[in-house]
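Archive entry. Fields below.
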Amino acid sequence: MAKRIEASNVSSYYGSFKAIDSVSMVVEPKTITALIGPSGCGKSTFLRSINRMHEVLPNARIEGSLTIDEQNIYDPDVDVTAVRRLIGMVFQRPNPFPTMSIYENVVAGLKLNGVKKKSLLDDAAEQSLRSANLWNEVKDRLSRPGAGLSGGQQQRLCIARTIAVEPQVVLMDEPCSALDPISTLAIEDLMFKLKDRFTIIIVTHNMQQAARVSDKTGFFSIDKTGDPGRLIEYDDTQKIFSNPTEKKTEDYITGRFG
Amino acid sequence: MSLLERESSDVVMTPDNIRSQKLHPGLNVGIAVGALVVGLALAYGFGIGNYVLGVVLGVVFYLVGLQIVAGRIEGRRAARDRMWKALIYSACVLAILPLASVVWTLVSKGVDRLDGDFFGSSMNNIGARDPNGGAYHAIIGTLEQVGIATLMAVPLGVLGAIYLVEYGRGKFATTVRFFVDVMTGIPSIVAGLFVLSFWVLIVSPWFNNGTPRFSGFAASLALTVLMLPTIVRSTEEMLRLVPGPLREGAYALGVPQWKTILKVVIPTALPGIVTGVMLAVARAAGETAPVLLVAGGAAAINFDPFAGGQQSLSLFVYQQAGDASRYAPARAWTAALTLVAIVLILTVAAKLLARRNSLSK
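PREDICTED_STRUCTURE:
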């Protein structure tokens, strides 16, 4: 079910501005990969290019190739909605749909893509909420608005919503940056659990988090403002945090970054 | 001593004393009453005006007095705060007064003819000496004309706004937006003239053996022209307020763009869209000029908006207000009251309907 992602020489542009330069990496199935680096270094841009979410902005384009199990997602005959069904995404700020209840939020991806049978939707809702460690907290108020939950619960609701459509890959863009330590822990536990089924790529500013949850870590950086971001080093998380090859990586993770 | 303490005359409190005296509410009322008495005394005493001037002077004196007294007791910053608050409340009252006056005048003068005859009969065969006669035909006309205009303008306007917000990029969208803005400024009489020259004089003869004819539908067309820009602009603003991350959240689930718009964006913006539509409907219901030119203003009941002249409430008010009959003004007032009531009921109903769909209760 989980799939392998291979990026080769991916460069991303917003108009004439080059945001990332020639990033290549291979993400194995059923692993957690963390992307770290200073703000503005292009890690979110790279993450968003994996499910073509950057295309929401006008004039955004990509060079190079991104394949998911040998299929290039940027081939001209690829349907962008199909890519996004395969590669789900959790955002920095929880974004439950405000007009929908908790239940409707979880099944939104199924319902809006044409699943009508109530029993199937009910099962999917319960399973996704259980997987997201949220079921016990919300099972008695499924018809209440999703926006009425706390920040951490909303974020788990968004994760439940994402895994309800059973993607192959889950992208997480700083999913814990707006959450307190307890909610963060809940989501990290959840990521370990989801690792059995999904390939997970997470962008984070929290290096302890990267060290705790990920199997592999990629370090992005820029030389100066206006330059494109580069992938400086990509290796096993343990190696990155104990014995990095690049001096820049070491400076960054030890807090000596200029 | 900090820079702020030394240089700001507003600061009366010191690090050792964060308390300051408060103006007693009784004193506040006292200043108000005193100012009012002085104002009225001046107005009547010098014979320069009646109670209106007295009250206006009273408010001014109150503001000045409050500033002086509160300034002594509470310090300058607190006094300024009080004065601005009082000013804002006065402005609010001033803004509501005309509205209250309009409603009161309508109700007090319109209640005379608020009877079954008014809502049950038309002006057919009603002469200058007949005290009865009603606006049944005009109510039908208004409801049909505004209803048809809404049916045409809402889908067009909302779809146009969706295009501008979600799809429109480049020169074409800019041009469309520019012309929508231009259309907002079209005087209603011009919309009426346009429909008169285009629909009534050129198109309608095709359907009527070569003879031009007035119709309720022609009025609907004119009202549509007037409603469209309002609906496009207000819907556009509301759609722009829907946060981008909500759209991205739906895209990330593999939901196609059109379905995201239909099931996520529009429901989120719905209450605002309904408000915009109701503003347009209210404006259209009150329009007289375009209807005057193209509807025909018949005195008899005509249910068919496509054939023969129709009346409308605003046009009815206009005609009755200028009529020579001594019974006409009462009919005009009641018709005006009815028009306001219809718009009010429609607005409240639309708001309730829009709220029922959303979860926020």
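CURATOR_NOTE: Chain B touches chain A through 26 residues (CB under 8 Å).
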